[in-house]
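Service request form, structural biology core

Requester: graduate student, group of Dr. S.
Request type: structure prediction, single chain
Budget code: on file
Notes: please return the result as structure tokens.

Sequence provided:
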Amino acid sequence: MAQFPPEEIWHMAEEELTRLLDNGVFSSMPRTIRFYAPSFMYYRTGYFCSSSNDFPTISVTGKSCALNCKHCGGKVLETMYPAKSPEELYSLCAKLKREGAFGCLISGGCLPDGSVPLDRFVEAIEKVKADLGLTVFVHVGIVSRANAERLKQANVDAALIDVIGDNETIGEIYNLNVTVKDYEKALKALSQAGLRFVPHVIVGLHYGKLNGELYALQMISKYKPSALVIIAFMPIHGTEMAYVKPPNPLDIARVLATARVMFPETPIALGCMRPKGRHRAETDVLAIKAGVDAIAFPAEEAIKFAEAHGCKIGFASYCCSQIYSDF
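Core staff response, request fulfilled:
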């Protein structure tokens, strides 16, 4: 990926945004775009309907998370299948396979150090891969080199990691006593272990404002991610940030444009976590103009926009991180 000093990155991204506003299309707009609708959320448009079985999400901690982040409060975990022991995980995966699943995302709440406790599930994951042939993505949190190597040996298909680029946001929003250096160490661990890994950058996590997204992209650019996913803070009912205004679509486009400039050869997806409704429709069209290669749960307006501008489109029931393989 291209390496630029921070001020040049922002300047190039702003030039792309100017072209967007003046001409309506970014110079990097793709010829092909993939749309994804995995099983953890119901999705239906005139183009595609999601399946409840194809690619579900599993939590190895059930509804439990030690961090109680202000933006999530464990609410996301409530949408996942619980599997709190290795035996439960294997049995659940076997059941899901019988019901038609061809893959799953194994995630969970974090421990106080920011890691997802996958280490005791590694043998079960390896057995799931060997016996059932499922595509398995894992959400790792802050991960050590040793655990990254164990996941590699278990043959997981890809590791997903949220990367935060601001110490204040880590402490204030995540309630986590680590620094951006710990996230960079995790990226290095995944890279050195030889795992395919897909970093996620959250736009507007700091109370809806941009704060550290560029630094997160700079950290990621030191390594070679299999793909990059940009998501955005969205208020979730029942959390401490339920009434915080999300980042506006143009701010999300600003980060997407920056990512496209920095990672010209890396598949980039607009991920599932982002505001819905009119906000999503505007964001998704801007994302296509910014040159993303994939969008999860796209607004119908964005699909029509892609078609109208000559893009080839395709749908799949996988997690959007699958773009590393489909690109």
